[in-house]
């Protein structure tokens, strides 16, 4: 079974979505036969590489709301993340481009470390105030994920995997992906948004039963887990 996930490190719902997907797969009877491929998607392709603005300030400016309103919106997200055991600190998370981080995620796949790279980037961005566009920071995070230093340096010093990042974005447009996370199972089922673990598990079993038929099965979908936060929508 092949699962493809379009996501952005800068998307708070994607962090929750990855955690839920990992949880669902860990309890799936055929987990050892599941391949997960992380696809690139940028919510803001025009973001500057590095800024000093935190995500509360960015949300306020982008949507023309007060800083207090932005803090309240992000605090709701923070509480939801806490229920999943994830740390969000929107007061220190720094707005900036995720393009080079996506290049590293593609590189990590060549070493079988995509998931580890994703997890390290999410935790660093949302919980530690690390800048996704800073190469020294990305190098340190890649080493934390277990990637070889010299190869990481070569990737960051070049445009390696840039074409793959752009190709993922183009394919997302062809698939009419309008928000992330967006999960595709065996190119048959699509799960938009950070679906509950139970819904993901049902979809995994449904997809598996179709290629390994053992009986009838019907998955129940629930829209409650769909992306709702403005931060997970395409910029207008």
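-> sequence recovered:
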């Amino acid at each position: 079974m092949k699962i493809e996930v379009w996501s952005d490190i800068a998307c708070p719902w994607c962090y929750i979505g990855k955690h839920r997907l990992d949880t669902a797969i860990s309890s799936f009877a055929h987990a050892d036969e599941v391949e997960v491929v992380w696809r690139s998607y940028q919510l803001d392709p025009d973001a500057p590489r590095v800024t000093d603005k935190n995500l509360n300030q960015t949300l306020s400016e982008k949507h023309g709301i007060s800083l207090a309103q932005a803090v309240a919106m992000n605090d709701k997200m923070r509480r939801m993340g806490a229920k999943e055991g994830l740390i969000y600190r929107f007061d220190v998370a720094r707005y900036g481009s995720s393009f080079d981080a996506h290049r590293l995620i593609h590189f990590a796949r060549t070493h079988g470390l995509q998931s580890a790279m994703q997890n390290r980037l999410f935790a660093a961005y949302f919980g530690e105030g690390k800048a996704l566009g800073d190469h020294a920071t990305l190098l340190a995070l890649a080493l934390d994920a277990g990637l070889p230093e010299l190869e990481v340096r070569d990737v960051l010093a070049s445009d390696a995997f840039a074409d793959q990042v752009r190709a993922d974005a183009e394919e997302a447009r062809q698939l009419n992906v309008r928000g992330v996370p967006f999960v595709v199972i065996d190119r048959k089922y699509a799960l938009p948004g950070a679906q509950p673990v139970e819904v993901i598990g049902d979809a995994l079993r449904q997809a598996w039963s179709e290629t390994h038929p053992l009986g009838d099965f019907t998955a129940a979908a629930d829209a409650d887990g769909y992306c709702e936060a403005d931060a997970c929508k395409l910029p207008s």
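The radius of gyration is 18 Å.
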